[in-house]
Amino acid sequence: MLIKDLEFVKFIGRSKVQAQVKALAQQINVDYQSKSPVFLPILNGSFMFAADLMKLIEIPNKISFVKVSSYSGTASTGQLKSLIGLELSLFNQDVIIVEDIVDTGLTLQKIVNELKELGTRSVEVMALLRKQPAREKGIEVKYVGFEIDHEFVLGYGLDYDGQGRNFADIYRMKEPNSEKAEL
Ligand code: IMP
Q: Is 141 in the pocket of ligand 1 (CB under 6 A)?
């Protein structure tokens, strides 16, 4: 499949994705059974994952979609990121960040630090996909759908230059001479 200038091949089919989303939801239903967590899906990438996940959550909860904005700090600090769109007080709340993918983990680390400063009771992270760099750096993600290599993926919310978020399956960029199979 060609998206703009890149060739993508099927990587994780929709039934595997859905099975994993169900398993993640069940873990949350157990781990948070006496709690009432606040889910914070990070837009845009996690919209589809969050929608499927939330249909399977059986404990009381709240959900607030947020965005991470990049803005220029002072010349010396360069690019900083900050959470925007938060409409709930997170003081004393059990927060679950819902991410599409964790790559270097830099975005996530900033979000977690920001949330802790708001007086949250607990902050855990759920990511549908985690790439190798985050694993190597030991970025803490309690709930992971799929561990993948350092490869570019698209579909199920994830985009390439704005395109491809709508696909129900997950694709990966085809590298020349790659013989890698579907997950
Ligand atoms: P990090 O700060 O390097 O962990 O980047 C995380 C963000 O980059 C994700 O939330 C995605 O929006 C985006 N991203 C990282 N890898 C991919 C990918 O393979 N496909 C599409 N988006 C990606």
A: no
101 lines ligand 1 (CB under 6 A): yes
Per-position b or e across 43-82, b if 16+ CB within 10 A of its CB: eebbbbbbebbeeebeeebebebbebeeeeeeeeeeeebe
How many angstroms is it from 101 CA to the middle of ligand 1? 6
Q: Give me ligand 1 centre to Cα 34, in Å.
A: 33
Rounded to whole angstroms, how far apart are CA atoms 79 and 95? Answer: 26
Residue 110: CB atoms within 10 Å: 15
Q: Would you give per-residue pLDDT tens digits along the chain (183 residues)?
A: 999 999 999 999 999 999 999 999 999 999 999 999 999 999 999 999 999 999 999 999 999 999 987 654 444 444 557 889 998 999 999 999 999 999 999 889 989 999 999 999 999 999 999 998 887 787 889 999 999 999 999 999 999 999 999 999 999 999 866 666 677
Distance CA 36, CA 52 (A): 19
Instruction: Determine which one of 31, 103, 161, 169 is catalytic.
Output: 103
Asked about 103 being catalytic, the answer comes back as: yes
Contact present, 4 and 165 (Cβ < 8 Å): no
